[in-house]
Design a protein that fits this description.
CATH superfamily of the largest domain: Periplasmic binding protein-like II
Keywords: DNA-binding, Transcription, Transcription regulation
Domain HTH lysR-type: 6-63
Helix content: 40-55%
Protein name: DNA-binding transcriptional LysR family regulator
Radius of gyration: 26 Å
Number of helices: 10
InterPro entries: LysR-type_TF_proteobact-type, LysR_HTH_N, LysR_subst-bd, WH-like_DNA-bd_sf, WH_DNA-bd_sf
Strand content: 15-25%
Number of strands: 11
Number of domains: 3
GO molecular function: DNA-binding transcription factor activity; sequence-specific DNA binding
Order of helices and strands: HHHEEHEHEEEEHEHEHEEHH
CATH topology of the largest domain: D-Maltodextrin-Binding Protein, domain 2
Length: 309
């Protein structure tokens, strides 16, 4: 029997129309005319016997039936796309090693390490997914992840790589060449704060023994990438993991305000979900990393690497 299926062109038009809630923008997205999109949607509605969109003045609005249909169709289109890509590249996404990396850690540390792995094992394909440091390994599909924490993740085996060490930095034009000469000099600068880790300044001040009794005053930014960009541009002083600022310190675009490292109480870990420890790709990566992490100093923060010379 012939399958009861709408045309793929109609589903493409429906998908684009839902995403843009505009036939005109959907047409621009697909490189067709607006009347072509309208005709495809009309054909789909006739085929299904449903009204998928309604007009609310100049706006396009999904009906309740249209929203329910799209919820299912979008998943099927995503799956169809995945299967098609897998066919082109000759293997399935399920056969690839899935590696989790918080975006800043990936940019500031992970790229060189993964490049070395790709060179050593060109037949082991991997895909990197952004993840949070509070990753739930019980529900995650990742095979392994590099995350910051205290080493306690439910359902995962963790390996400490190195402790997180905090430094205070600022733009060269903002600081004297020798850095700040006294703790009280902090009063003269805005202190850029990380809204996702609001206790970092207090942690550094107390741990480093800095006698600063004023309010911690300054702009609040959501992540280290933004904080470093604003620090480079002279917005104020920032407390950041030394791991994330090594390039700026080496190039001179940022300078240490104090010659003091202070651990945050957390570390960077390589974590393996216990249910995937026996995977062939996981075993390949684990064995390679165990050897290379100890041998290659560029995989370590400068302070750790210096201790291994």
């Amino acid at each position: 029997m012939r399958r009861f299926l709408p045309s793929l062109s109609a589903l493409h038009a429906f998908d684009a129309s839902v995403r843009h809630l505009s036939f005109t923008k959907a047409a621009e997205d697909m490189g067709v005319t607006q009347s072509g999109i309208s005709r495809q949607i009309k054909n789909l509605e006739d085929f299904l016997g449903l009204t998928l969109f309604e007009r609310a003045g100049p706006k396009l609005v999904l009906t309740a039936e249209g929203a329910r249909y799209y919820e299912e169709i979008s998943r099927l289109l995503d799956k169809l796309e995945d299967v098609s890509i897998d066919a082109v590249r000759g293997r399935t996404a399920q056969s690839m090693l899935k590696i989790g990396f918080p975006p800043t850690l990936m940019r500031r540390w992970g790229a060189a390490m993964l490049t070395a792995f790709a060179s050593a094992h060109p037949q082991t394909w991997f895909e990197v997914y952004p993840c949070r440091h509070d990753l739930d390994f019980a529900t995650s599909e990742l095979d392994l992840a590099f995350v910051r924490g205290t080493g306690n993740w439910s359902g995962a085996r963790s390996q400490l790589l190195f402790q997180e060490e905090l430094v205070v930095v600022g733009a060269p034009e903002l600081l004297p060449p020798e850095g700040l000469s006294s703790d009280e000099a902090l009063l003269d600068y805005p202190l850029i704060q990380n809204s996702s880790r609001p206790s970092l300044w207090l942690h550094w001040l107390r741990g480093a023994g800095v006698h600063y009794k004023s309010r911690i005053y300054g702009p609040r930014l959501p992540n280290f990438d933004m904080i470093l960009e604003c620090a480079v541009n002279g917005m104020g002083l920032a407390v950041v993991p030394e791991l994330h600022v090594r390039d700026e310190l080496a190039s001179g675009t940022l300078r240490l305000a104090f010659d003091r490292l202070q651990t945050s109480g957390e570390g960077f870990y390589l974590c393996f979900p216990q249910v995937r420890m026996s995977s062939t790709n996981v075993r390949i990566f684990r064995d390679w990393f165990a050897t290379e992490f100890g041998r290659r100093r560029q995989f370590l923060p400068p302070a750790c690497a210096a201790g291994q010379r």
